[in-house]
Every structure is written in C-alpha cells, then in structure tokens.
Write a structure and sequence with these properties.
Elements (H helix, E strand, L loop, with lengths): L1 H52 L4 E6 L4 H9 L7 E7 L2 E3 L4 H9 L9 E6 L2 E6 L1 H9 L4 H14 L9
Parallel strand pairs: 1-2
Antiparallel strand pairs: 1-4, 2-3, 4-5
C-alpha cells in the first residue's frame, strides 16, 4: 500500500508535465509528418524518372560478404558483357558510376531477398530483380567452371520478366 502511495505523486507529475508537452510538440510532429510525406512523394517521382532515363540497363550487384567478392572480381566482373554494370556493396557503401541515392534505393528495394549477388534490370521504368545466391554458391562450392556461371547470369537477365508498360 505504501508503494502505491509513493507512485501517486509521480503519476500526477507525469500527467501535469506530459499533457502540456504533448500539446506543445503535436504541431511540430504534424509539420514533420507532412514534410516527410511530400519528401517521399517527390523522391518517388524523381526515382521513377531516373529509372526511365536508364531504361534497359542491367546491374550485377555483389557484396564483400564472406570474401566472395575476390572470386567475383577475378572470375565474373572482367567477363561480364559490356551492357551489364557491376555494383559493389562494401559494408553499407555502394560503389557504382550511377547516382548513389537511386542505386541504393534500387538495391534496398530488391524483392527477391535470397542474398547477393543480385541481377537488376530496368524495364518499362521499373527495376526487376533476381537473386543469384543459390546458383552462385553452388558453382563456387563445387568448383564449377566460372564461364558456366557467366552463361547462367546472362540467362538470368534474359529470364527477368518485363513488366508490361501501362497505357495512358
């Protein structure tokens, strides 16, 4: 009973201070939420326009996880066809010749989240993706010919289903 009596002044203090602070900060929070909404909407529009500007591009995304990047950089990257752009993720830093903000968003939005490496193709203003994780580890662990993996990567891009363009 004594513990309950000791808690009453704390509860009253929280009510007396908490309610005015909530009322004071509510407009600031609302302004922030509205601002954030419009920022996201504006980014989505810029991102969509960017995807349209790089229509048809193909990206091979890989990371430095488990030292696989040495294998990839030695056997895969030098032999990729000229139309495939490598994107290297080192920790949280993306290394690409393309606009970092948009490429980061593209990689973060990958839907086939089975692990790196990822294939991403821009088709009809959309980024279509596929994880090559299983295939990559099968080839690497079984010491298969890297040229066969390159064929599989190229086929992977060919098999990425294009999203039909919406008519206006």
């Amino acid at each position: 009973m004594k513990e309950t009596l000791k808690e009453i002044p704390v509860i009253i203090f929280l009510i007396i201070v908490g309610i005015p602070l909530s009322v004071l900060f509510l407009p600031i929070i609302l302004v922030y939420l509205v601002f954030e909404f419009f920022q996201k909407k504006q980014f989505k529009k810029r991102y969509s326009n960017y995807l349209l500007s790089i229509e048809g591009k193909k990206f091979f995304c890989y990371s430095n996880r488990k030292n696989n990047h040495h294998y990839i950089e030695k056997n895969i990257i030098p032999n990729l066809t000229a139309d495939i752009e490598p994107v290297f993720l080192e920790g949280k830093i993306l290394k690409s010749d393309y606009i970092q903000e948009y490429i980061s968003h593209m990689v973060a939005a990958v839907s086939d989240r089975k692990g790196y490496p990822y294939l991403i193709k821009i088709s009809n203003g959309k980024a279509i993706d596929k994880s090559m994780n299983n295939e990559f580890y099968d080839f690497k662990s079984q010491n298969k010919n890297p040229e066969d993996l390159l064929i599989l990567i190229n086929r992977g891009f060919d098999n990425l289903k294009s999203i039909p363009k919406l008519r206006d």
